[in-house]
Structures are given as structure tokens and as C-alpha cells.
Amino acid sequence: MRALVISGGGSKGAFAGGVAQYLMDDMKYEYDIFIGTSTGSLLISHLALGKVDEIRRIYTSVNQNSIFSTCPFIIKTDKQGNKQIEINHVNVLKSFLKGKKTFGESLNLRQLIRNALSVEDFESLKASSKDIVVTVSNLSLNRVEYKSIKNFDYQEFCDWVWISANFTPFMSLVEKNGCEYADGGFGSMVPIDEAISRGANEIDVIVLQTEVSIGNHHQSKNVFSLMTNIFSFMSNRIEKQNIHIGKLITIYNHAILNFYYTPTVLTNNALVFDAKLMAEWWQKGYEYAKKKNKGCDFAVYNEL
Q1: pTM of the model
Q2: How do residues 47-60 score in pLDDT, each as one tens digit?
């Protein structure tokens, strides 16, 4: 069985889309299992349906308003052309006055998911042999959970996809089944082990981070940029741990891993959704996968 695993990474998901497009359209890979975390969860349903052009259109046309119903920050560009975030004091104050637990809300993303994935598409996927799995973090029970399309109705599954991509405290915190849920990346950025536990013996893994650290983050300008730098650091450590564990499990199960990392740093703030940049990243992902496959430069782990 072959699986496609896509890590978290916010707006960098456009790069993953480009990689997946090449693997599926040009390499003609067919996947039995699709597993995504955060932005990866937003991609996998359309990829499984073969509707690559449709998800590409969505990823290359979104902006902040497409995601946030209440955006907690303002985006500014510095003299070097780097995008920085500053606190939107008015929106944050409104959230606090309403008794919200987060700085912002992402109800627009929830609606976008439902607009993009029709009931008919959902039923088609659920009836197929493919397994579509999204990663969420259960903050109440302190555990990672994997939600398969096979186990839920349309409304529930759309909610799990939305929850998987909710990067709190900047986005919505969701209460469901008596528990608080948030972005799957808080617990599992690269769920290789879950793909193997579901029977995969060859896994294409798209990691929305460079394989080795390149350069430094920009110095924090305010409390929000400090928080994003802290979360980025934590996500990087979780990601490396997931990959390390995944490699060990892969060796034990005699499976094969094919890694696709971003060759360069795409952005230092993946909560900034710029349609033009994301269109460029999608094309970069496609070209990178093309170059990598022509060079057969895989990181394969199937033996000690």
C-alpha cells in the first residue's frame, strides 16, 4: 500500500500541492492512504479525488479574509520586503470582550472547507477504498488523534479538517465531544507512524520545512511575532522527532520513505496568506518534485 503524508505548514501548503501534483499527474502514483496535518489536511481530500486543479485554484487565490473571521494581526512589509505582523488591537480587544479564548477566529476557513468539498465528493471518497485521515490535537486529554473519513458524516469530517488547521491562539479553539481541540501540528507535524500503522509500505512524505536549518528568524518586533517564532521553534522540534521516530518504525516494518523537503525557506510566517506568493510556491513544489525524481535523489529508509 502506498501513502501520501503532508506535514503542517500554513500557507506553505501551496508548495506541497505542487509536489503532489507532479507525483500524481506526472509520476502517476496512486495512493491508498492520504494523511495530513494542518494545511496537509486541507489538501488531501481534493488530491484523493484527483481534483488537483481545483485545490490549486483555491490555494492560489486565498487571502487573510478567506481564513479569518476575526484576524488578530495586521501585516506590514519592512524595508527589506519581509512581511511582519503587528497586533490588531481592536480585533483582539473585541475577542477578549466577547469572552473568547483566542486572539482571533477562523470561521471563514470552516466555511471555505464546506464550499470546497461538496457532499457528493465526500460520499464518493467515503465509498472508495482510499483512506483519508486528518490529524488533530486533543488538548483536554493531552493526545494526538487521527480522524478517518470512514468514521464520520459530512459535517463532522469537515469540522475535523477545520480543527486540524486551527493554529491557536491565533485561530479558533474548538470544543467537541467535551474536549478542546486545536491544530494537529501541536502533537504530530509529520504523521509517518500513522501511515505505517494503517498498512502503508511505501510513503511519500512532504515536509514543509528545509531538511537542515537555513539562516535565522527575524528578530521579534512585538509579542505576536515572538509567539510565532516560539511556535515555529516548537514545531520544528516536533517535526524532527516525528521524522526520527518514523524512520525507526519504517526500518522495523521494512517500508520505504521518500522525502520531499522545501529546498529553501519559503516564509518565516506561515499565517500570512499571499495569493501571488502561494502561486509561486505551488510552481516551485512542482518543479522541485520534477527535478528530484529525474535525479532519483530520494531519502530512502528501508534497511539498517
Answers
A1: 0.91
A2: 999 999 999 999 99
